[in-house]
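> forwarded from #structure-qc
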């Protein structure tokens, strides 16, 4: 959550989304109420090329995630050629939206829509 907050509050992202820091806080509060905590029983390190993102692999594997969602797909390539992969799809946000039966829109009311 701290990384999401830090990234979403970067000036370039606030400008692009036309949100205030307070609106980001409200969004994250709503989102935090919906997420399911994951207990890390196993560590899969080293599994990917970007050591800074290993934490997300651990959470995804321990939480039986269907997909890791990121704009940085290259960061999640196997650590070396001998490693076969995570066993979890890695995709961009658009990949997730294409999998959904319901899609958010500007006219849809949602907990994530800022008021």
């Amino acid at each position: 959550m701290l990384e999401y907050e830090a990234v979403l509050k970067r000036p370039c992202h606030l400008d692009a989304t036309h949100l205030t820091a307070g609106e980001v806080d409200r969004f994250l509060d709503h989102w935090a109420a919906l997420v399911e905590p994951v207990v890390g029983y196993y560590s899969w390190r080293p599994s990917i090329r970007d050591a800074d993102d290993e934490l997300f692999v651990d959470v995804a594997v321990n939480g039986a995630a269907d997909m890791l969602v990121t704009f940085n797909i290259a960061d999640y390539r196997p650590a070396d050629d001998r490693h076969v992969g995570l066993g979890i799809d890695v995709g961009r946000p658009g990949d997730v939206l294409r999998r959904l039966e319901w899609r958010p829109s500007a006219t849809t009311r949602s907990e994530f829509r800022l008021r």
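QC bot note: The radius of gyration is 16 Å. The beta strands are 67-69, 89-91.
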